[in-house]
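Troubleshooting log. The previous structure file for this entry was overwritten by mistake, so regenerating from the original sequence record. Sequence copied from the archived sheet and checked twice against the printout by T.R.
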Amino acid sequence: MREMDRRTFLVTGGLALAGLATACKKKPVALPTGVRLEKVVAAAKKNKDLEITQVQAVDKILVRPQSRIAFALTNSSYTKRYTGGTVRVWYAPIGSTEAARGPVVASYHDEGLGDKGVYVARLDIDRAGNWNVLAAGTPDGATREVTGGAAYPAVEHLLGPGPGAKAVSVPTPTVDNHRGVNPYCTRTPPCSMHAISLDVALANGRPTVFVIGTPRFCQSRVCGPVVDVIQQVSGAFADRVNFIHAEVFKNDTDAPANNGYAPAPIAWKLDGEPATYWIKADNTITEQIVGPTDLAEVRALTQALVS
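Regenerated output below.
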């Protein structure tokens, strides 16, 4: 997944956070609710919160209730990454005069992700366009409140299938038939999710977890080891759920330069990776996550498929 560090947050909306002081003698007051986002930011400035950077783990969000966002928090030089603690988000459409929504708790997810954990929040997004998202709280080890923001574009529909749409049936590489993809899995050793092809999985009456990603090229600050995470969860559901992995590129040695995409990401119109889909037995997609997700989140979403 590309690193989406949009420092334009609160610039287009006229809410720049620059210039926050580095010390505070007074006890900070709680950030307000039911007011415009500018007033939430003004309260953060009055508290002299430490300005940090919100590194986006998704490049767009969907217009729908409980739309998922994920982000990392770092200092401005990216030399320190914040984890855990208590973080909340306020959000509003850019240019809107309505009260900011929130705060919504952003829970920290790092089980199986090592040092690439992310904060995850579910936001009710009711219109397309750019949204400002302000994160504020006290991560583990922070001596005072920190504040950081980013702008997220919200879209009505994805290029490819998303939640509520039907999965695209396409043959994918298996151990016995690589279908022109070399190697069929860039993980070392190859993952266990190539026993059957996606088209076979979608026809066997079971729900499916389908991940498109290239473990070898997952290198950004927010690109977690998603294929490993999915594989670790698969064992507990192997008798009830199909788990399928497909690579992004046809040839992992020259594909980044030549854009030689494999058939699955082409058929699914992939515009960001790793991308994971949770698919019911009737082939309806219930959830899509682009970017990192941890063991706890994968377990919960997979359990929902069989509940």
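The two ends are 30 Å apart (CA to CA). Archived copy saved in two places this time.
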